[in-house]
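QA checklist item 7 of 12: single-chain prediction sanity check.
[x] sequence parsed
[x] length recorded as 509
[x] structure emitted
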Amino acid sequence: MKRTLLIVTLAAVLAACTQTTPVQPRIAIAGIAIESSTFSPAVSLMHDFRIRETDSLLSDYPFLHPDSGVVDRAVWLPALKARAMPGGIVKREVYEELTARILEMLKASLPLDGFFFDIHGAMSVEGLSDPEGDLIGRIRKVIGPDVLVSSCMDLHGSVSHRLAKNVDMITCYRMAPHDDAMNSRRRAVVNLLERLESGKGKPAYKAWIKVPVLLPGEKTSTRVEPAKSLYALIPRLIDGEKVIDASIWMSYPWADEPRNHAVVMAYGDDKKAVAAAAGKLAEQFWSVRREFAFVAPTDYLDACLADALASEVKPYVISDMGDNPTAGGAGDVTWTLTELLKRPEFKHPDGKSLIYASIPDADFVSRAVATGVNGIIDAEAGARVDSRYAPPVRLNGRITAIYKDDRDGDVVVVKIGSISVLVTQKRKAYHYEHYFTQLGLHPRETDILVVKIGYLVPELYELQKGWMMALTPGGVDQDLMRIPYKNIIRPIFPLDADMEDPELKAEWM
């Protein structure tokens, strides 16, 4: 009996000694994210980027916070993530410095099992035609060909062959406006984890289809048809095994590069199913191409103003689209404001109230701050970067507000007739109501609100009672027919509206 007990005990001890704790996968995170217009004279520099490194990078992802249920599934090795507000082409030296820092940090994290490549997908860099493809190619040389790479992009990004080949699992947002941005990133990370945990590794098949369409986001919002139904197809084509994920990239029309065209991709372990999913999305996309239209009534500025002035609702929002800084415009084009200041309807303080947001000019703001609230200022503003359409605009009026902000820069309000002009120390987008109320302005009670934006973000969309989008000039001109493209691949819709139907055939990456 004692001998039997001893054998059982020894067996249990040996079993315990041979059991090992499952090794968690080692996953790194890095990326550079910006949307860059090559039709703007602006250049994006290092100070334009917000840079997160090591553990501070994890704070950008709610799904990797301590109580998320995801963070405990891997050893996370965050490197560097640089993100900038959309703008002009990135200076080559800035790109090279950021890339070198990423590569050095990844070398220090080796060996890796997985890598999350977090990018926007529409970055332009001096002297490079495919920056994201270049970046992932360099990263691959460091981490090796066997590391499982997952990426999430903006649906307005561009997917080149090189990018598609070097990323094993690639997805993008399915909503515009991008209310699902963080959920999409989570999907990319969870898919990565599941393939590592299961031991299945890289999906067996990855299909890429070029769709020769190039449209602005203002015509492809998922709030309306046909984009709404097109993107709604995606979940029905995914089953978790045969087809793990599928995506549609609308691309970015304000960069002049061969990769700028729509793309459909799908990946999974069943070749026939992957091809069918990608093909269905591509064919449906092409079949509805003529149905895409601006998400709101759109016209040139005079027609938008006529409608706004005749309207009895408030606020009536006019999107000043051509210089939209959230799409890559320089932000300091003065053309629209110059036209507004000419209008007799706004010359008198008792005229229809109008808020104009905004014009960046650090020198003007410094003079206004020195003058103080209720002081009179007479100085030029704007067109320091992009003066192609109008010179600096003369603002002669009373300073009604000054808002001091050490992080985002100071803002002043100048009242000229019935127009309140926001002048910012730094380039800034006006998406939120509190940006106005902190300046003593009340957009809900204002007759007309003119904002440098395209389609309205949710808060402005809920605020407006009337809305038109103005075809104004700038680095992100919505009138694609007047953009001087030289390098995009033709034919492409809508520039070549009568082109023959393309062969929407899957290429295997």
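[x] summary fact logged: Residues 63 and 456 are 27 Å apart (CA to CA).
[ ] second reviewer sign-off
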